[in-house]
C-alpha cells in the first residue's frame, strides 16, 4: 500500500530565494491491521530557478513581490495550493534578522499552502543543508563522520553526521558576499563581522581592492575551515567567526560542500588572475570557491566528497527532510491541525506520577496561561495498565484548568493507548497524543494534518544553541 | 547484571543486550560492524571459532530455542484466567501432542461443550472476547492483563455490550467462528498465542471478525499480530483493537473486505 | 497387478497403486493427518514388499492424479521419452533400486528421460537413508546461469539475507557478512517481506550493483510471487538473473500458489527474453513435502509422491536451482527431526534422479520436535550426498520467515569437513578478496562484514555497498 504526498520547500535567503517540490512516497509496511507508515522514497519533482530575494528600499523583504514569485512557480510546476500536503518555509541567513521576516513567512504560508512554517536559526539551516546535500545519507555507509559545509553569501552552515545521525551543527561568518566590489575594483561593502580579518589584508570599504589581498582573504576562509576539520588551533579572532556557539564534534575526516559558493568548488572554474572573471557576481564568491577547492581537493588529510546538491541543498532539505512522521497508531482529530510554533515542555520523570504535577507547574509557568504548549516525554516506561492509567489521570488533572488542546508527544509507541485513557478521564477535552516523535526542552513544534494515518511534525530543534 | 555476577552468578545470556554484542575479534571497523548489526535483527557480527560458532553464540541460540519449545509444549498456567473469571472450554484435543498433530481437532468443540456454552453465556453481545492458548500459553499470560483492561475501558467508553469472556484450551483460530455462531456475536475478538520465534515465546495475535462464521473464508478476519513488550505493546494493541472494533461495527464487515 | 501379501501370518491387501504408495511411505505425520498412512510398522513393510514387485510400467499407467484432470500429470507423462522408457518399463521397483545402486552415472543418465514422478517416488520408498546418499552421489546434475552449479567437488550456498521489513541497509548488512564467509555462490536471494513491484525491483538492483562493484560471479534473485517478477520484467524495472516460484505437485494445489503450467510457461518465455543472466538455466524453484495436503490438493496421495511430482513440474523449465524447504511446513506434516532428516534425503535423491540440480533448505520450525543437532546431521549427510547447495543465513536464524536453517558457519564448516569448495570462479574471487586462502579455507580476516570497508577505502573512499 503506497500513498504519495507533495511536499514544498521554500527558502528565503540573504541574497536568493527558491522553491522546490518533492514527492514523498509513504509506504505502509505492515500486513496486519496495525499500520506502519514511513517515508519510503523522496523525489524532487520541481526545482525553481534561483531568484534574487526581493527587498524594499528600507531593506526589509518585499512581501508582495515574494508572493508573486511564488505563485508563478506554483503555476510552472502545475501545482495548486491544495495539492501541497506538507513542507516547510524557512528563512535563512541574514534575511531571518530582517524586521518583517516573521510576517513575510506567515503571509507566504497563506499563499503557498497552510503547511508548517519554520523560521530557521543558523543551526536548523545547517541541519537541513546537510540532509539536502546528502551528507547524512553518505555517512550511513562509511565508518567515519561526514560533514557538510553549506557556504552561502553571508554564512557557512556546518552539519556533522555519523551513521546517518546528526552529531553537531554550527555556523560561521564565512561567505561569498561578505565583501562586495564594484566593476572598477572598488570595495563597496565589508560585513562588519569580518572587519578585523579584512583589515589584516588591508581591505577597506571605499578603497580599490588588491586582487592578491582578496585571494588571501579567501584562502584564509578555506584554511580556517580546514583547521576546524582537523581540530587545529584557531586564533581568538578566528574563533569570533562562530555564530552563537562553537563546535562540539571532533575531527571531520570527510567533507562535502554545498551552497552558492560550492558551485565554484565543484563545477565552475574562475580565472583567479582575471579581474573581469572574478567579478562576475560583484563579490568574492568565485574566489572563495576556488580557495576551498585548492585547500580540500587532493588533500590527503581529508576525504573530499561530492554533494548531491549544491546551491539547492537547503531548500531541498526543507522540502524533504524537515518533516517527521509520527507513529501510525495515534490519537488526533483532523480539525485540530495545523498547529504552529508550539513550545515544548518536557517531563523528565513521567513514571513518577505523584510528582508530575509539580514538575509540570514549574516548567509550564514560564509561558502565559493562554499559550498552547506541548507536553513531551520519552514515554510512560515499561509499566502496565495501572501505571499508564495513573499517568493519563495526572496529565488530565494537572492541565484541567487550561483552555488549550491537551497535546502530548512521546517517543515510545503508546500514543493510542494513552490517548484512549486520557479521553476517557478527560471527557470533552480536545486531545492530541502522538508517538515516535522526540522533542526536547526549548524546542518548538509544528503539527500538520494527518496523512495516511500518521501526523507530519516539524521539530525545530534548538539544542545546539546552549 | 554486574551485581549478580559478583554475587556468584554466571552472566544471564537471555538478556537482550547479549544479542547486541559484537564477538568478532578484531574487525576492520568496529564502528561499521556495530552499525550493520543495528540495521537488522539478524545474528550478525558473531565471529567464529574455527569455522564454527563461539560458545556464547551457540548457547544463546540454544537458550532462545529452548524457551520457544517450552512455550509450545507447556500447558498454559490457568491461574490468571481463573482470577479474571473467564468461562473455560476445551476443543476436541486432549493434549499438546494431539494439538500439534491434529489442527482439525483444535478447531471444533463437542456438541456437549457447544450446548453448555449456549446455556451459560450471554447471547447476542456486541463484542465477544475469546482467549485461546494457541501455540504459546506464555503469550497469553504475558499480555492478557494489560490488553484486556484497556479493551474493556474502550468498550465501556463506546457503550458496547460485552459478552461472557471465554477461554479455550488447545485452540486454533477457527474456534472463534464456532463461538460467534453459537452466541450470535456482532464482533468476535480472539486473543491467541502465536507460534514462538527464537527468544520470543510471548508474542500474541488478535483476530477479529464481523459476524464470524465457519461458512466464511479465513479472509473474513482482521489481524493484529506481533503483540508483546518489544513488538506492539499490549496496551497500544488494545487501543488499536478498540478502534478497529468501531470500524467493524460501522462498516459491518471485516478482513479483506475492509480497506484499512 | 498384485496388491496383496502375507507377512508374519497376516494378510495385507491394498486398494490400488496409490494406496500401496501411501502405505509404503516411511512414517510422516502428514500422511497420518491425511488418514492414508500405514496403520503400523508391519503394514508399512508389507506395502513396501508389494511395491517392490510392482513394475515401472504399472506405475506409469497409474498416476496418482488422472491425466485428464491435472496439468502436472500431463506435463510429466508427455515429457517421457519412449526409447528410455522401453528400456526400464519391465523393471520392478525392487529391480530399479538395485539398478540405481549398481549402475554408473552414465547408465542412470541414459534411463532418466523414461521416468515419471510415481516411479521416482516409488523407488525412494524402498531406499534406506544410506542408499539414498550412496546413489545420489553418482547423480551429478549441472546447470549454468552466470556460473555453473553442481560440479563434483563443489558445495554451493544461497545467501539468504532476509529482513523483517526489507530495510535495504539491513539486507545489505547480511549480504556483506555472508560474502565474508564465502557464502552466496549459488545465488544472493531474498525472501521479500513486502511483495510490491518497487520493493522487489529495488532489491534486485541493489544486489546486482553489489555483484558488479565487487565482481562477484553469482546470480541475483528476489523470491517474490512469479507474477510480480513478470511485471518487473515487462516494465524493465530491474535486472533479474534468476526467476523464482514455489511449486506444488498438482493442479489444485498449484492454484493455491496462484500458478499453473500455462502461467509458468508464460513466465519462462518472458524470462528467456528479458533475463540479465548469461546461461541457459535461469529458473529457481522451491518445494516441500506436505504443501498439497495443506491446500487440499493431494488427491488422497502421500506427500512423498506429491513432492516427486513437483520435480517433474520443475524439470519442464530446466532450472538452475531447485530446493525443498524441508522442515518449514511444520509438525503436522513432518513431526520431528527423524522425519525431517528422512524427508531431506528423500527430496534430494528424488530431485537428482529426476534430473534437476537439487539443493536443500535444511531447516526446522520451533513447533517441530527437532533441534539444531538434527539440522546439522541432515546437512552433513547431504554434503556427503553431493547436494548442490544449501542455505546460508546469519547464525542460522531467519528473522523474517521465523524458522531455523543452515548458517554461514555451517556452509564454511561443511566445506572444510568434506573438502569441497564453492563454484570455481566464485572461489577464485574469494581468494582475491582475501577471504579464502589457497586451500579454499577461511582466512584470518574472513567472517567480518567490515572487511569490505577496509578494501573499499583503497577503491572509492568508504562506501562498501
TrEMBL record, chain A:
Q: Please tell me whether the keyword Zinc is annotated for this protein.
A: no
Q: Which InterPro entries match?
A: ATPase_NBD, EutA, FtsA/MreB
In alphabetical order, the GO MF annotations are: lyase activity
In terms of SUPFAM superfamilies, this protein maps to: Actin-like ATPase domain (SSF53067)
Q: Carries keyword Lyase?
A: yes
Q: Which UniProt keywords apply?
A: Lyase
Record field: transmembrane: none
Q: Which Pfam families match?
A: EutA (PF06277)
- Coiled-coil stretches noted in the UniProt entry, renumbered to this chain: none
* PANTHER family reported for this sequence: CELL DIVISION PROTEIN FTSA-RELATED, ETHANOLAMINE AMMONIA-LYASE REACTIVASE EUTA
Q: What is this protein called?
A: Reactivating factor of Adenosylcobalamin-dependent ethanolamine ammonia lyase
Task: Write down the species.
Answer: Selenomonas ruminantium
UniProtKB/TrEMBL annotation, chain B:
Record EC number: 4.3.1.7
Q: Which PANTHER family match?
A: ETHANOLAMINE AMMONIA-LYASE LIGHT CHAIN (PTHR39330), ETHANOLAMINE AMMONIA-LYASE SMALL SUBUNIT (PTHR39330:SF1)
- What role is this protein assigned? Catalyzes the deamination of various vicinal amino-alcohols to oxo compounds. Allows this organism to utilize ethanolamine as the sole source of nitrogen and carbon in the presence of external vitamin B12.
Family, as annotated: Belongs to the EutC family.
- Designated gene of the protein: eutC
What GO CC annotations are associated with the protein?
ethanolamine ammonia-lyase complex; ethanolamine degradation polyhedral organelle
Q: What class of enzyme is it?
A: lyase
Q: Which UniProt keywords apply?
A: Bacterial microcompartment, Cobalamin, Cobalt, Lyase
**Which GO BP annotation is one of this protein's?**
amino acid metabolic process
- Free-text remark on how the cofactor is bound: Binds between the large and small subunits.
Reactions catalysed, semicolon-separated, are: ethanolamine = acetaldehyde + NH4(+)
What is the name of the protein in this document? Ethanolamine ammonia-lyase small subunit
Q: Give the GO molecular function terms.
A: cobalamin binding; ethanolamine ammonia-lyase activity
From TrEMBL, chain C:
Q: Give the catalytic activity.
A: ethanolamine = acetaldehyde + NH4(+)
Cofactor binding mode and count: Binds between the large and small subunits.
Q: Which Gene3D superfamilies match?
A: Aldolase class I, ethanolamine ammonia-lyase heavy chain domain like, lyase
| GO term, biological process aspect, one | ethanolamine catabolic process
Q: In which pathway does it act?
A: Amine and polyamine degradation; ethanolamine degradation
Q: What single Pfam family name could you report for this chain, choosing any that match?
A: EutB
State any GO CC term.
ethanolamine degradation polyhedral organelle
Q: What EC designation does it have? A: 4.3.1.7
Listed binding positions for substrate are 158-160, 191, 286, 361
Cofactor(s) the protein needs: adenosylcob(III)alamin
List, in alphabetical order, the Gene Ontology terms for molecular function in this entry: cobalamin binding; ethanolamine ammonia-lyase activity
Alphabetized NCBIfam families for the sequence: PRK15067.1
Q: Mind telling me what this protein is named?
A: Ethanolamine ammonia-lyase large subunit
Q: Which organism is it from?
A: Selenomonas ruminantium
Q: Which gene encodes it?
A: eutB
